[in-house]
Amino acid sequence: MRSARTRKLTASALGVAFVAVCAWIALPLGPVPVSLQTLGVALIAGVLGPLWGTLSVLVYLAVGALGVPVFAAFGAGVSAFAGPTGGFLLALPLFALAVGFGARRRGAAFALSLVGAHLLLYAIGGAFYALLYAKDASFLATLTALVLPFLAGDLCKGILAFFLVRRLTRAEPFLFSQRK
After folding, report:
1. What kind of fold does domain 2-174 have according to CATH?
2. Cα–Cα distance between 162 and 102 in angstroms, integer?
């Protein structure tokens, strides 16, 4: 029992570091950069499951809030949560939870959970941005600025996450067989 918990804690810590590295791989595209952060979160949530995946994301956010530059474009601090990407950061635990539960189902249900998690991320991040930064902009303008540029990349990241999670969970069953 203790060794299983140790493996989960180790995998969770590695997941936090992996998400940070994924977030650093970013293209500045307006107020919200394109990064591999959601790919990292989808992978750790899909592999570790809803509980450990979400806990890993919460640790990642806490580390960033404490000032360690783990967010996109090496961002850090509490101010990152009040910036243009704040809503997207705050939505990451829900994103991880949705992906983690979907990964338990496999197949089409997992694919749908990835789509739903991205829609949830867009909704929360877009609403947050619209309330703080685009009060006078129309819904269509906000949608055009914050969702449309990301659709193709997020589709590719979702497909990649789907296949990698399936492969990783088969390759390491001793670690991931009882995902929680």
Report:
1. Arp2/3 complex 21 kDa subunit ARPC3 (1.10.1760)
2. 10
